[in-house]
Design brief:
This protein is of the alpha/beta class. The protein has helices at about 15-25, 45-55, 65-75, 95-105, 130-140, 170-175, 210-230, 235-260, 265-275, 280-285, 290-300; strands at about 1-10, 30-35, 55-60, 80-85, 90, 110-115, 125, 150, 185-190.
């Protein structure tokens, strides 16, 4: 019924915890696809050892590629009616699969989202795709990470992760949720994200890791995402533009306050964009008080 996809890369000290958390699920009807993405340590060996002991596990060994290429390999091999992802340095609660499966069926939804250890809410709601996307971009209850979600496999028809981008989830998640007729959410914590400096997105919590190339890629993906959202959901065009500008002013503030080196050209480009749209941003009903303060401090008045 459910295909669990996990990409493994150089996590020999953590991968057993992730695997055990899946194998102890109370929901029994799943296959577990582990994609060894060219690990240089024993991660692939450990996965093979588990596969020999549990027939639900299938291990795919591939040459090193980006996260998207590994997840695509898992998607191409999946046979379940539903798809969920787990990262090799995280873990899930024993009722993770059952909780999401019950939620998706109870609400007749195409996607279900649970809470995580750092995002706990007791709210239980059903959303349209547009409502789910607005909540996604607020990043308060859930974010673009693919774990902690269950998807109907139909949402991935003709859709795959980028095999060149480092932050492919930012681009793909809105397109996946945007296909859903209904998205169910119940914020009880059934998944734990392990935060450390080797995470692909570690810079979002440790801003000293931010560099120009990372910022360039984020800005490019955000630009493409905004254009796509405006085209697909024009009634919320103001919100889509707001979220991009909100990201920009937050990055400008961090670069200036933390004196992050090497990002001067990116800062200037963001300031030009914010200056061009200053009035619309300041007058948008979504703009937060602190964002207005930052805008008045960092963006040259008209």
């Amino acid at each position: 019924m459910i295909s669990v996809i996990m990409l493994a890369y150089n996590r020999e000290n953590l991968i057993s915890r992730a695997i055990n958390s899946v194998l102890t699920q109370t929901f029994p009807d799943f296959e577990y696809i582990i994609v060894n993405n060219g690990s240089a340590d024993r991660s692939g060996v450990i996965a093979d050892e588990y596969a020999r002991r549990d027939r639900r596990i299938r291990v795919i060994h591939k040459q090193r590629g980006n996260i998207g290429s590994g997840r695509n390999a898992g998607l191409d091999a999946a046979s379940g009616k539903y798809i969920t992802f787990i990262d090799d340095d995280d873990w899930c609660e024993p009722d993770y699969l059952g909780f999401l499966y019950e939620l998706i069926n109870e609400r007749d939804a195409d996607a279900a989202i649970c809470g995580a250890a750092d995002k706990v809410f007791y709210e239980k709601i059903s959303m349209t795709a547009e409502e789910a996307l607005i909540e996604l971009l607020w990043r308060k209850k859930y974010n673009v990470a693919f774990p902690a979600k269950l998807f109907s496999v139909s949402l991935f028809e003709g859709m795959r992760f980028s095999e060149t981008s480092k932050y492919d989830d930012i681009e793909l998640m809105p397109r996946i949720l945007g296909r859903a007729a209904r998205v169910a959410y119940h914020g009880l914590p059934k998944y734990t994200f392990e935060r450390h400096d080797n995470n692909n997105s570690a810079w979002t919590t440790n801003h000293s890791l931010l560099d120009a190339s990372t910022l360039d890629e984020y800005l490019s993906v955000y630009r493409e995402r905004t254009d796509w959202l405006i085209k697909e959901f024009p009634n919320s065009a103001q919100a889509w533009r707001y979220f991009e500008w909100s990201y920009m002013i937050s990055m400008v503030e961090k670069i200036m306050r933390l004196k992050i080196p090497g990002c001067d050209s990116q800062r200037e480009a963001m300031l030009r964009e914010l200056q061009s749209n200053r009035n619309e941003f300041l007058n948008c009903e979504l703009t937060q008080v602190f964002e207005k303060e930052w805008t008045n401090e960092y963006v040259i008045p008209n």
